[in-house]
Amino acid sequence: MDFTFTEEQQMLLDTTRRFVAKDYGFEARRQIREKSPDGFSRQIWQGLADIGLLSLNVPEADGGLGGSAIDNMLVMNAVGEGLLLEPYLASAVLATRTLAALGNDAQRAEWLPALAGGEKIAVLAHDEQQTRFDRMAIATRAWPVGNGFLLTGHKSVVVHAGSADVLLVTARLGKPDSDGPLAVFCVPGNAPGVRKVEYATVDGVRAGEVWLNQVFVPATALLNGAEGANEAEAEQKLADVLDFGLAAVCAEAVGALDKLLAATVEYARNRKQFGQPIGKFQALQHRMADMVLHIEQARSMSYLAAVRCTDADPAARNRAMSAAKVVVGQACRFVGQQAVQLHGGMGVTDELDVSHYFKRLMAIELQFGSTDQHLEQYASQLA
Asked: Does position 179 have pLDDT exceeding 60, yes or no?
């Protein structure tokens, strides 16, 4: 199989890397994390829009670039390398693809150009406490009232919820005692009845708990797709979006792993003990060699995830995505722990970027299902 990127794909990767290297050094990131009221830089966000990255997942018919999963993988590699705090995954990938997949012509025309231009931020408010083990176990409910819907429920760990202009809320249609089809609603971030509690996650990214207490939205807020679309299709299309996001976060992990390995090798060359660099000690060389093996396995599985995340066969796709998440998750844990241990006590301090990569990899291992969960899913699919 040919893994060579096209000239356009290589240009996309190089452009993103240059942008990150120029404007997102470690000290600049620290200043953004500590001083920005949003937890990210609006200037950087607009810069991402100016070079076209926010329109990558907008279909060409809606004025975007219509990028592929491979294109998105390359951008996420650079996002992982730079540890970007901006809501690229939340808004430019998950929310944008949700609107493109489920929005009708009017909804796409209203939101996609604004998202691509950096003018608006949307986030997918999907996860709840029970979705940890079943991603479609949604307890939030929506039922018709007059010319609209009332929404009630609680969404957990909604990344960048506080900065979102619109929340794409998933809910089951029907009263609490019913089990209706899944639907997605555009809910303004400041709508009456919406309560948000923000906090910083372990990797420094802002997130929040979102409560919806009988929030009224008009009928036009329902993302029902093209005219005559079946309501049952929403769940499958949302699953497609979540699988695409899983592939994206695997690619982000590979970018972070590469930078973590480079920092560890550089430290081993410069740190001296007993009169020589610690990188000359054979035992430590073996540990760094094991780090390389884990990273290369994760890279290969990231390619697999990018290729198979849009597979039309749900069973084959589920197996591939679970397998990729297991291998990438194991690499996140092993490489992160080895990097911290090889740096010694300095490896857990905020003064070194190693601790920040380690924390981000910890978070990635749990996103879109933990390593253990996907291992169980993969085993059950084989059975």
From this structure: yes
| pLDDT tens digits, one per residue of 91-148 | 999 999 999 999 999 999 999 999 999 999 999 999 999 888 888 889 999 999 989 9
Separation of alpha carbons 335 and 165, rounded Å: 37
Element (H, E) at 178: none
Residue 68 has pLDDT above 90, yes or no: yes
pLDDT at 226: 47
Q: How far apart are CA 46 and CA 127, in angstroms?
A: 27
Q: Residue type for 204, please?
A: G
Q: Alpha-carbon torsion 342, 85, 194, 224, what sign?
A: negative
CA-based nearest residue to 103, from 237, 212, 215: 237
7-120 is classed CATH 1.10.540.10: yes
The one-letter amino acid code at 238 reads: L
Closest by CA to 124, choosing from 157, 147, 173, 85, is 157
pTM: 0.94
Question: What class, spelled out in words, does domain 233-382 have in CATH?
Answer: mainly alpha
Residue 289: CB atoms within 10 A of its CB come to 9
Whether the per-residue pLDDT at 229 is higher than 60: the answer is: no
How far is 152 from 141, CA to CA, in rounded Å?
Answer: 5
**What distances in angstroms separate CA 142 from CA 189, 238, 299, one per listed residue?**
17, 17, 41
Neighbours of 110 (CB within 10 A): 16
Which residue spans of the chain are classified as CATH 2.40.110.10?
124-221
The residues of the chain that CATH labels 1.20.140.10 are 233-382
Is-contact 69 77, C-beta < 8 A? no
Give me the CATH code for the 124-221 domain, please: 2.40.110.10
- Tell me: pLDDT of 268 over 90: no
